[in-house]
Write a structure and sequence with these properties.
single chain, 267 residues, alpha/beta, Rossmann fold, 2 domains, eleven-stranded mixed β-sheet, 5 helices, 27% strand
Length: 267
């Protein structure tokens, strides 16, 4: 896990504004291989072993065997800027070559399509993908310079790639509101994941839902997102910029009361 993530992480139990403190036991190239993140509020600790973080609330059992099954979904579709169009164009140009090479729609092509749908052409910033997209994560990180890709789920365990971090979590993403530029979600993943993806997106950020269903389309509209793509099984919604539409999607968990000067609890 990238050491700079500590600037964006929050306690998955307490939520904002309770950031985490990193105690690293082994670091290589600014990557935490062994260590733990701790919450100063609830005193819980979240271990990092083999570069993989565990942000599940205790008690923590042993994780499942095996990895992700691979992203599902279609291509990125139309892009909104010249840079995005160039990314989408490269995806189309490489598509037939990849099929000829290995007889299937390769990981590199799927990564290009996701990049085009996300609309992120350069860093810095964070992109969140599910564990099923572990094979595309490295491609995204190579394609979009300066981006850190966060693989969330057991499928990310064992991933070793530059600019890719991986962890498992509970029902909450351990990230600040509005911390990321893009989120990839599975259309069969459920509204809980979609809601968390919406919460952590910054204004102008996109959530891309693969294997999109009518339920996902209804959710995008209900979440106040603008639809920028809906074709070939892939749906992308963008968070309105300030003053351009409804601004929703904040941490809904329990938060400590603010304190007035003198130490008295606020309202």
């Amino acid at each position: 896990m990238n050491t700079t993530l500590v600037d964006h992480l929050v306690c998955p139990r307490c939520g904002p504004p309770n950031g985490l403190i990193l105690l690293a036991h082994e670091v290589r190239d600014r990557r935490v291989l062994e260590g733990e993140f701790g919450c100063p509020n609830c005193r819980d600790r979240f271990p990092v072993a083999g570069g993989f973080g565990d942000f599940r609330p205790p008690p923590r059992g042993v994780g499942p065997e095996g990895g992700g099954a691979g992203c599902e979904g279609g291509a990125g579709g139309q892009a909104g800027t010249a840079d995005e169009a160039a990314v989408a164009g490269r995806a189309d140009e490489e598509d037939s070559a990849a099929v000829a090479r290995d007889g299937s729609d390769g990981d590199a092509v799927r990564a290009l399509r996701l990049a085009a749908a996300l609309g992120v052409t350069q860093g810095p910033g964070l992109i969140v993908v599910p564990g099923s997209c572990r094979d595309e994560a490295a491609g995204l990180a190579r394609l979009v310079r300066g981006i850190e890709v966060l693989v969330v789920g057991w499928g990310g365990r064992g991933v070793a790639a530059d600019d890719v971090s991986a962890f498992v979590t509970g029902p909450r993403l351990p990230l600040r509101d509005g911390a990321v530029r893009g989120v990839v979600a599975d259309g069969e993943g459920g509204e809980g994941w979609w809601d968390e993806g919406r919460r952590v997106l910054m204004p102008g950020g996109r959530i891309v839902i693969t294997r999109a269903t009518d339920k996902a389309r209804d959710w995008v509209r209900g979440a106040g997102l603008g639809v920028v793509l809906d074709e070939r099984g892939m749906l992308a919604g963008v968070v309105p910029l300030p003053g351009k539409g409804p601004q929703v999607g904040r941490w809904g968990g329990r938060q400590p009361k603010s304190r007035r000067p003198g130490g008295r609890p606020g309202p």
